[in-house]
């Protein structure tokens, strides 16, 4: 059980000292991370938290933002029952187009548009349980080969649970550079979000991805009803798998999904959670991903004060993202360099 160390949550000097300790190579304890999640908005402690998160980001990652993008190449009718997902087996959400695997031209057109908006990588995402050996593996590896040949953006994939090491090896050989596979939430909370596969199966796929030599993109979703202790647990589990990129999403409770009734996170709580993630994962690339527009509304560009160093641009899997021009202008205001821009 993680107990908060209460003193730090209202002590700006202690928060600044913790940031300095992290920059010097130290690490925050679980108790300190738990306490930081209790920092009250609009207080000197909150200012110290955001300032510390930005100092940590600057020390480990500099001022250059990264941008990534996703394409939903096979949308809807998934066999799994993830409660947050509009594409799940039990979702009645009809706010997006269900498709079979998209034709190459459509994928390349979307990749081209993402590249023009600064994305260095585009991930092909499929709504299904995962990849099995046989015809399915042959189909996806052929599609990856054709996509990788486009040369404009780094070809990444997010194809679900892998049946075997061979699946991971073949996908890597086809040209996929990074495999996206989220833990989604803390191990202790996973059964509440999904009953058709386990957290351990997700971990096994992560093991296959790493052994195949692909980069790992692995994060999760805040605001699905998990406790603050479970947020700390999740951040520690992410630290353990040490992904190259950590996409941090907020639940956007879409109509027709099992989690439609869960209230959106309060914007201040969402921003504080991102900043705490920077304290927990100082040397990892942290990406503000899905749900940011829905949860933060007009305050969405404040994500740049939380210490993130990557942003997901373009549309999400079943909903639309903000105009990329918004990110470019806002990044400059926070002293960050958007891909392709000079400060
Ligand atoms: S998150 Fe992925 S595995 Fe879960 S229901 Fe949605 S598409 Fe299927």
Tell me about this structure.
The chain is an alpha/beta fold and 343 residues long. The protein has two domains: 51 residues, no CATH class; 270 residues, TIM Barrel. Helix 4 crosses helix 11 and helix 6 runs parallel beside helix 7. The chain starts with 5 loop residues before the first helix and ends in a 10-residue tail after the last helix. Bound molecules: iron/sulfur cluster (SF4). The site of iron/sulfur cluster (SF4) has 8 residues, from loops.
SSE blueprint and pairings:
Elements: H1 6-9, H2 12-23, H3 30-36, H4 44-61, E1 66-74, H5 104-116, E2 121-126, E3 130-131, H6 135-148, E4 154-158, E5 161-162, H7 165-174, E6 178-180, H8 190-193, H9 199-211, E7 215-217, E8 220-222, H10 228-241, E9 245-250, H11 267-280, E10 285-288, H12 292-296, E11 310-312, H13 324-333
Parallel strand pairs: 1-2, 1-11, 2-4, 3-5, 4-6, 6-7, 8-9, 9-10, 10-11
Task: State the main characteristics.
alpha/beta; 40% helix; binds iron/sulfur cluster; TIM Barrel; 9-stranded parallel sheet; single chain; 343 residues; two-stranded parallel sheet; 2 domains
Number of helices: 13
Number of domains: 2
**Fraction of residues in helix:** 40-55%
Q: CATH homologous superfamily of the largest domain - what is it?
A: Aldolase class I
Summarize the structure.
The protein has about 350 residues and is α/β, with parallel strands linked by helices. About 40% of the residues lie in helices and about 15% in strands. It has a 9-stranded parallel β-sheet. A two-stranded parallel sheet has the order 3-5.
């Amino acid at each position: 059980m993680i107990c908060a160390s209460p003193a730090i949550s209202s002590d700006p000097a202690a928060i600044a000292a913790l940031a300095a300790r992290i920059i010097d190579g130290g690490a925050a304890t679980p108790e300190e991370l738990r306490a930081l999640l209790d920092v009250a908005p609009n207080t000197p402690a909150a200012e110290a938290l955001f300032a510390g998160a930005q100092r940590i980001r600057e020390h480990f990652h500099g001022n250059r933002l990264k941008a990534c993008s996703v394409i939903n190449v096979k949308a809807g009718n998934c066999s799994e029952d993830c409660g947050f997902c509009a594409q799940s087996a039990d979702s009645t959400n009809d706010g997006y187009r269900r498709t079979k695997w998209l034709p190459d031209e459509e994928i390349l057109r979307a990749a081209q548009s993402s590249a023009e908006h600064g994305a260095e990588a585009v991930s092909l995402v499929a709504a299904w349980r995962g990849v099995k050996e046989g015809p399915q593996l042959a189909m996806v590896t052929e599609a990856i080969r054709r996509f990788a040949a486009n040369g404009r953006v780094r070809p990444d994939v997010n194809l679900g649970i892998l049946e075997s090491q061979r699946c991971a090896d073949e996908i890597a050989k086809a040209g996929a550079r990074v495999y996206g596979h989220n833990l989604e939430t803390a191990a202790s909370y996973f059964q509440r979000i999904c009953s058709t596969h386990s957290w351990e199966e997700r971990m096994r796929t992560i093991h296959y991805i790493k052994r195949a030599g692909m980069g790992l993109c692995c994060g999760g979703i805040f605001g699905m009803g998990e406790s603050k202790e479970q947020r700390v647990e999740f951040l520690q589990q992410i630290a353990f798998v040490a992904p190259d990129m950590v996409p941090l999403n907020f639940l956007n409770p879409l109509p027709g999904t099992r989690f439609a009734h869960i209230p959106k996170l309060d914007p201040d709580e969402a921003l504080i959670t991102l900043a705490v993630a920077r304290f927990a994962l100082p040397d990892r690339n942290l990406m503000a991903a899905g749900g940011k527009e829905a949860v933060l509304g007009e305050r969405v560009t404040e994500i740049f004060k939380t210490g993130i160093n990557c942003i997901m641009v373009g549309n999400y899997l079943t909903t639309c993202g903000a105009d990329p021009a918004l990110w470019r202008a806002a990044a400059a205001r926070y002293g960050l360099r958007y891909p392709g821009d000079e400060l």
